[in-house]
Structure formats: structure tokens, C-alpha cells
């Protein structure tokens, strides 16, 4: 499993690093990740027996990152208007169904998937389009993914005390501390990208490190509810795309809003 993870990581890094420097291509690649993660999320819900509008949710979810990539905005924060319209369409589509059972759950989970996967991860594209976006995107990826690596390495080697066993039996307190430490180290290494003091970078590392682990735990909670181990098996040693990006779902929007304030 470790060898598969290492090979998959090397391949992903070799693909992603050059793409970061090409603005629109970077946005399109992130959009592909969003669509794949949406597919896995809605498939996961289908396996649980929830009646959802799978392809409607994927299609509507794809519009959000595409609109950012091609700078199409009906209003300043048109994503929220878009979510309202998506809700309206879902209700209208529900009128055509012959039964009423599961209406609230189906509509709610479809909207949740669009927000949780598409909207949250699309902040990576917004980060890339900020001033010095290459360095900022590299920073949030470095801090978040080093946290994942640290949690896995330290947890698998030294993990003894379970973190939250009912959600993820394999995650440990030692792994969580290791992940947080690696996130801080990633933040300090980001000095090459950000003109901030080391103390400031440490605070960012702790903040994003905690959020990254919460993102990982949140997806574990959903997988536990759906009684599955991985969102898919498309990435050897890692699982699915949703498993790969879960820790970024909280760190991306938080880092975007924080840096938007700092850069003003």
C-alpha cells in the first residue's frame, strides 16, 4: 500500500506542478477533479439508497468552476445565486416524480454535494487567480498535503491512541500531531512564496493543518455512514479523487478569504 501511495504521489506531483504555472489550464484541471469528485460523492449516496439527481448535480456543480475559469459572473458573488436557482430547478423536477417519499433528503443532499465539493474546491481556482496566485496555490497545497502525508506516516508507524474510532478507526492522536507538525513545516517552507514572518506562517500552518484534518474526518464520517472504505479505487493506494482532495475542501476557502484580506 505504501509503495502504491508513493508511486501515485510521484505521478500526481509530476503532473500538477507544471500545470500550476499555466493559469487557465490549471483551472480546467481543477474542474476535472471537481467533476470526478462529484461523481464519486453522488455515487456514494446512491449506494446508500438515497434518490438524488446525480447528473443534474454533476452538471450544475461543473458550472461553478467553469464560470470562474472563464470569468463569467452574473453578479459579484453569483455562485450563491446559482445555488438558489439549482434549488428551484430541483423542486420543479421533483414535481414530475410520481412519489413524494425522500424528497427532502434527495434535494438536500444534491445541493449539499454541489456546495461541499464544487463550491469549496473551486476556491483553488480563485486562489490561483489572485495576485501571486502561483505561490499562493503552491502554499495551500503544500501545507494541506504535507499534513496528509505526516498524518499517514506518523500514524502508521507510531499510532497507538485512536483519535475518533467511531468515524475512522485507523486515525490516531499521534497521526494527528504528526500531520499538524508537517503542516507547520510546509508553512515555514512556504516562506519562498509568501513575504510573511515565520511566526505568521506558523499560525497559518496550524490553522490550515487543523482544517485539513477536519476535512479528512468529515469525508470519513460520510463514508462511514455509507458503509464504504474509499470513494472509489481510481488512484492506486489512495482510493478515489474525493479521498485525495477531502482535506482541501476546508483549507481552500479559508485560505482564499484570509489571503484576500491580507493582500488588500
Annotation, overall tally of beta strands:
0
Helix count? Answer: 11
Instruction: Name the helicity range.
Output: over 70%
Helix-strand pattern, N to C? Answer: HHHHHHHHHHH
* CA gyration radius, whole angstroms: 19 Å
Structurally, the number of domains stands at: 1
Note the topology.
Blueprint: H1 2-20, H2 23-47, H3 54-69, H4 78-94, H5 103-121, H6 123-128, H7 133-158, H8 173-189, H9 198-226, H10 241-245, H11 248-262
Helix pairs in contact: 2-3, 2-5, 3-5, 4-5, 5-11, 7-8, 7-9, 7-11, 8-9, 9-11
Give short descriptive properties of this protein.
264 residues; mainly alpha
Please explain how this structure is put together.
Helix content is 73%, strand content 0%. By secondary structure, the protein is an all-alpha fold. The chain has one domain. α8 packs across α9. The longest helix has 29 residues. It is globular and about 60 Å long.
Short description:
The chain is about 75% helix and about 0% strand. It is mostly helical and about 260 residues long.
